Structures are given as structure tokens and as C-alpha cells.
Amino acid sequence: MTTSRASIPFGLNPSLAARDRLIVALDVSTAPAASAIVSRLGNSVSTYKVGMQLYTAQGPSVVRDLVGSGKSVFLDLKYHDIPNTVASAVREAAQLGVCMLTVHAAGGAKMLSAAVESASSNPNLMILAVTVLTSLGDNDLEQIGMRGKAEENVLRMAELAASSGCQGIVASAREAPILRSRLGSSVAIVTPGVRPAGAAIGDQARIATPADAIRAGADYIVVGRPITHAADPAQAAGQILGEITQAS
Ligand code: C5P
Fold first, then answer.
1. Does the first or last residue of the chain, that is N or C, have fewer Cβ atoms within 10 Å of its Cβ?
2. Parallel, antiparallel, or unpaired: how do β-strands 22-25 and 220-223 relate?
């Protein structure tokens, strides 16, 4: 069954407000720590990413609480399993009311199509395929047996994801321009590895500033530590929102 998803801002959408483009990663271990960040950021941030750390520690209640408080949730558990198992997990996530979730493109076409099909009951849920983690450089890929440069692998995975019906892909800003030209505007590009000028790089390898990411064609940017570890998270988010507005 295919459901129309016209209400979702897929693909490059210049009319998206800066606030809709920023996704803050809640990479913390407890619900109180997550709530503290959400309340410090207030209305400036509407979408939060719940990843494996917080979900493993606190379970689905943290997602339900965020959705219940009016926030949008990107569930970043990077599903990668046999198609039936991934489809079943996606069905559960759809019931939690999340608006985006991730699957690994490396799971293959059958797994990706199963995820998309399973999400089709919820027209507000976007399936995003993770192409190549932004922490991996060319040498890391060679080590795990992936031939070619990161960019070639990202392109191949993104084309597979798009042809399998995924609504978006996760990719570094460096690959966004070529992805946009290859895939057109029908697929949303979500970009982590974003670092404002002067921020600590941490374990990311393929980074870009918020403005560079938006100019490169990213629809959404994911920012974690530069906001959540800032002395003043609201001010850090405000600066990033300003950069997004200027670049949009
Ligand atoms: O703290 P930082 O801004 O590096 O957080 C980036 C977030 O985006 C993390 O939660 C990380 O798991 C996630 N992510 C990523 N690279 C991907 C997919 C997701 O960094 N390819």
C-alpha cells in the first residue's frame, strides 16, 4: 500500500523555517537530562533526535513524553536487520508518533522497501536511510572492505535508498550538492556532522558549518554536542538558527 505524503516537506524546500530545519540530538542517558535540555531550549527548537543512548537507557517513554509535549521526534536507531524484523520495528515506531526514523542503506533494497511499506500507514513518518556514517573517512571504509571513496559509497547507497522508496537520506554536507544533483528534490537530505566555526570537532570526520550545510542543499541539520554541551544551549541554538536563516 502506498500512502500520499504530500504534507511532509520532502526534498529541498526553501520555505521551511529555520526552526523546522534544526534537529537537536539528545545524546544523554536519562530522561531528566533530556528534559533539562528541552526546557532550556524552549520554543526555539521543535525537533529532537532520540538515538540509541537515550532510547536504550530510557525506552519508548522518553519518545512518548516528547511527542506528548508537542515536539517532533526523529528516532535514530539505525535499523539494520532482515526485512521482516525491520518492518516490525518500523510499525512500532510509527505507533510512537515519531516523524523520522533511520535505517541503514547497507541493509539492502528488500529491507529498505519493507521499512517504507511498514511506515506507509503513518503519512507523517519519513524513512531516512543512513548512507555512510560521518565519522568514517576513506581509510576507515577501506578497513571494513568498502572500496572507493566515501563519496562514491554515499552516492551508491543514496540511489539505492531513493529507488527503494525512502523519503530521505542521512549524509554529510560535503556530499549534499552531488546528492541533490543526482536525486533531485524528491528526497530530503538530513545532515549531521555539523559544527559552527570554532566548535570542537569531537569524533566527526566530514564536518561542515550550519550555513555551509544549508547552502550545500541539506533540508535538515542535526546538531548534538555543539548545542547540548554548550555553556548556554539556547544561545548556541540561537546562533545556529541565525546561520540557517541567513543561508536559506
Ligand atoms: O554531537 P554531534 O553533533 O556530533 O551529534 C551528531 C548526531 O548525529 C549523533 O547523534 C550521531 O549519532 C548522529 N549521526 C551522525 N552521522 C550519521 C548519522 C547520525 O553523526 N551518519
1. N
2. parallel
